[in-house]
Amino acid sequence: MIRRYFGTLRGLGRLALSYPQFFIGLSASRVPTPAQVKRLVFVCQGNICRSAFADVAAQRAGLRTTSFGLSTTTGRPAHPPAIAAAQMLGHDLLAHRAIDVADYMPEEGDLLLVMEVRQLHRLATDPQLARLPRMLLGRWTRPLLPHLHDPYGLDDRYMTQCLRRIERAIGRLVIAFPGARLS
Question: What is the CA radius of gyration of the chain?
Answer without folding.
Answer: 15
